[in-house]
Amino acid sequence: MKGCSSFAIGRERKLKFLGKSSTGGAAPCHLIVDRSGKWLLAANYNGGNLAVMPILPDGWAGQAKVIAFHGSGPNARQKGPHPHEIVELAGNLILVPDLGGDRIARYRLNLQDGTLAAADPAEIRLPPGAGPRHLAVSADGTKLYVASELANTVTVFAGSRMVQTVSLLPAQAEGSNAAAEIAIHPSGRYLYASVRGADNIVVFAIDPGTGLLTQRGAARTGAGPRIFMIDASGKWLLAAGQVSNTITIFGIDPATGMLSPKQNPVSVPAPVFIGAYRKLK
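Request: output the structure for the sequence above.
Response:
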């Protein structure tokens, strides 16, 4: 069964498997627990839909309510919709980049019954063939930064208005490249985006007034940097090299935002995600 697994966390930090629940679609690629802790949302990449599941008293994810996505794009990988990530903002606003449909879907989550209603506007469009994968939002919620996997770009939106698109590749880029993760530094001064193929993380400065981007440089990672994370202090960036089986640890220069490796990469089998540890009560 395609779906998500539920675990209980014991006092000794040991996991107890509770069971597996269907997400209502093929290839679930991302999920979040909403801020209220009542609902689990899952993006089904091949299923082309978004699922909302109640979190039951025993920790299980309950039966999924599914919203089907529609649309396609000019790229061979865009024959149908491919929701790729879920981001929750203030006011129960849910954003979902759809790689197949070249859009960001926008919903309001009803905390009482878990239903999703189209927000106003219901979507933000990107250029045909862009393939939006992941996104980041400024701390004040006024700027949206979208990493497009197929176009290898970062697009900046002020509200729903597109104000800038910057390339993640040099002018003479070679081979196959695919943008992956994007994140804003805790200070709000820098933005980072990873590219598989080029196998690097591109560093941008964020203008404090306009929110526009200026490229500062790039740092080489292990092969296939599908994901990276910035720690809460803003001092460190950890990049997972899925193909090289490594995690590269970078120090972040607070004055420039640039990255410098601090030790030899750590060996980890095919890392595809890194999450921040939250101390349990």
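Residues 147 and 154 are 5 Å apart (CA to CA).
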